[in-house]
UniProtKB/TrEMBL annotation:
The active site is at residue 126. SUPFAM superfamilies: Methylated DNA-protein cysteine methyltransferase domain, Methylated DNA-protein cysteine methyltransferase, C-terminal domain. Residues 74-155 form the Methylated-DNA-[protein]-cysteine S-methyltransferase DNA binding domain. It is an enzyme of class 2 (transferase). It catalyses: a 4-O-methyl-thymidine in DNA + L-cysteinyl-[protein] = a thymidine in DNA + S-methyl-L-cysteinyl-[protein]; a 6-O-methyl-2'-deoxyguanosine in DNA + L-cysteinyl-[protein] = S-methyl-L-cysteinyl-[protein] + a 2'-deoxyguanosine in DNA. It comes from the Bacteria. This is Methylated-DNA--protein-cysteine methyltransferase. Involved in the cellular defense against the biological effects of O6-methylguanine (O6-MeG) and O4-methylthymine (O4-MeT) in DNA. Repairs the methylated nucleobase in DNA by stoichiometrically transferring the methyl group to a cysteine residue in the enzyme. This is a suicide reaction: the enzyme is irreversibly inactivated. Keywords: Cytoplasm, DNA damage, DNA repair, Methyltransferase, Transferase. This enzyme catalyzes only one turnover and therefore is not strictly catalytic. According to one definition, an enzyme is a biocatalyst that acts repeatedly and over many reaction cycles. InterPro entries: MethylDNA_cys_MeTrfase_AS, MethylDNA_cys_MeTrfase_DNA-bd, MethylDNA_cys_MeTrfase_DNAb, MethylG_MeTrfase_N, MGMT, MGMT_N_sf, WH-like_DNA-bd_sf. It comes from Fodinibacter luteus.
Length: 165
């Protein structure tokens, strides 16, 4: 049985979804179902997810320690496993992720598509993947959120550095 809770964050309202003791999704632009429990409570796991996300947004947490079970294809899960190893405050490229997976350079588009299908953004840090030329590229949550998350981690963005990128 899945459970969810909504929390406010600097990137908007997030719906946190748990199923069978693992975090399975974080959804942007969530609407509460109207019940006070949906806003405040949840299972012990969802309480912990909220605590860790709040600490991350406050700048006090750099590594999430949560049970995750993102649903996707085998290829997507392989990409997300590598994505999970990209450290806080750093960026990588789609091509670099493809290379780490032992894929040819042309596989960066497939890696990008898998990245875009990430069901657990922020915790699985797809916002840390940028274009080969250093520009911010697509983000399912929107480019403003991607830039905000990177700035929160101390990574300058094009808006911060102008012609640097």
């Amino acid at each position: 049985m899945s459970r969810s809770v909504v929390m406010a964050s600097p990137v908007g309202r997030l719906e946190l979804v748990e199923d069978a003791g693992a975090l399975v999704a974080i959804r942007f632009d969530a609407a509460a179902d109207g019940s006070p429990e949906h806003e405040r409570g949840g299972s012990p796991l969802l309480v912990e997810v909220r605590r860790q996300l709040a600490a991350y947004f406050a700048g006090d947490l750099r590594v999430f320690e949560l049970p995750l079970r993102p649903g996707g294809t085998d290829f997507q899960r392989r990409v997300w496993a590598v994505l999970a190893t990209v450290p806080w405050g750093t960026t990588t490229t789609y091509g670099a992720l493809a290379a780490r997976l032992g894929l040819p350079p042309g596989a960066s588009r497939a890696v990008g598509a898998a990245n875009g299908a990430n069901p657990i953004p922020v915790v699985l840090p797809c916002h840390r993947v940028i274009g080969a030329d250093g520009t911010l590229t697509g983000y399912a949550g929107g480019m403003e959120r991607k830039a905000l998350l990177l700035r929160l981690e101390g990574v300058p963005t094009q808006a911060d550095q102008g012609a640097l990128f």
